[in-house]
Amino acid sequence: MMGYYILIGAIALVSWLVSSRLKSKFKHYSKVHLQNGMSGAEIAEKMLADHGIRNVKVISTAGMLTDHYNPKNKTVNLSEGVYSQRNAAAAAVAAHECGHAVQHATAYDWLTMRSKLVPVVSVTSGMSTWVVFGGLVLGAAAGVGFGYWVAIAGLVMMGMATLFSFITLPVEYDASNRALAWLKSKNVVTQSEYKGSEDALKWAARTYLVAAIGSLATLVYWGLQVFGGRD
User: Fold this and answer.
1) pLDDT at position 176, please?
2) The model scores a pTM over 0.85
3) Contacts 24+ apart (CB under 8 A), 181-187
């Protein structure tokens, strides 16, 4: 188990460093005020309108960096630091979340796949490690039948979460690419503001990359525990 704790600790450290860097970038670009004077909400509404999307609402949500698109009720939820603010960071985040709305409206394949996995992952991700560990206690590493299949079930659950993490990557990168392309083509931001928005979105994407790598590393570790002790 010591190896597992070291692995989790290393991943947590990298995740914290990336997250801290993202917050620092967001704070920095929050000081780069837009020359057009548009708020995050106004930018979101314009991007939706420019893509012919009129059935999605832009609403404010509490917290910092809690921005998200909800496909169930078709809402672009912007955090307090984005909804009413008029800076490069707000522009980037608002446009990114609208990028997800555009994906939904155009039935973007990766988003469709991700949405189908949500119900499964929401149930299994929290228990997968315990199921694998339970299987090992029951003798999975020694090849004992029942324990082995319990551990396999746990690995399948863990594998689904890992698959979900990697499918999330193209979804997030594509949303950012759509956002940046729209910001540039519609001249919503100046060149310097665009660079700030681009940099902020790059760091946001890296949080998902770290999460995916961490999920894969955890899956490999537990897979070795299950199969490594067998002849």
Assistant:
1) 96
2) yes
3) 182/47, 182/50, 182/51, 182/95, 182/98, 182/99, 183/91, 183/92, 183/95, 186/46, 186/50
